[in-house]
Amino acid sequence: MINIIKSLIIVIAIAGTVAAIIDLKYNNFLQAFTVTIAVQIIGYNLLKKLQSVHLNIKNKELQILEAETLKDVGVNVQCAYCGSSNLIPVTFQGDNSFSCVGCEKVNAVYINITSAQKTDSTINSSVNVNVFDDNIEMVKSKIKNNDE
Ligand SMILES: [Zn+2]
């Protein structure tokens, strides 16, 4: 309420000042006062409209960014209540809980990290091939021996 009164006082003060200046030259205070108020109201509404458009564009950019983030670290998770599939963003910073798209119940997400031995085929490949070849030769000779 105080803000509205403050805004009205500012609008009237500006209109009064501009009208007084115009009145000195053209002797038409009331018309200048009315036009100045109208210009201020129209200008304010135009500014609000521009801000709204700007905000919408920013919002769309954020949605696109969010969708791209979701694509990179998005994980398909089944709801613990109804089993619906939910694509959720997973982060190591903070809470990963989400509301299910099916039943709207809040699910918690637990991340289980396990380690595994890294296999590197380039280090032992020649040895493996030799062992494999030796085994094949051994099996072949056994088969030959059994046949005889
Ligand atoms: Zn659910």
What does this structure look like?
- The longest helix has 45 residues.
- Helix 1 crosses helix 2.
- The chain has 148 residues and is mainly α.
- It has 2 domains: 70 residues, no CATH class; 35 residues, no CATH class.
- The strands form 2 sheets. A two-stranded antiparallel sheet has the order 1-2. A two-stranded antiparallel sheet has the order 3-4.
- Helices cover 66% and strands 9% of the residues.
- The N and C termini lie far apart (109 Å).
- The chain is built from 3 helices and 4 strands, in the order ααββββα.
- Strand 3 and strand 4 form a beta hairpin.
- Bound molecules: zinc ion (ZN).
- Zinc ion binds next to loops.
Short overview:
The protein is mainly alpha-helical and 148 residues long.
Cα-based radius of gyration, to the nearest Å: 38 Å
Q: Which blocks of ≥5 consecutive residues have pLDDT under 50? A: none
Relative strand content? 5-15%
| Oligomer state of the chains in this structure | single chain
- Derived from helix and strand composition plus strand pairing, the structural class reads mainly alpha
Bound molecules: zinc ion
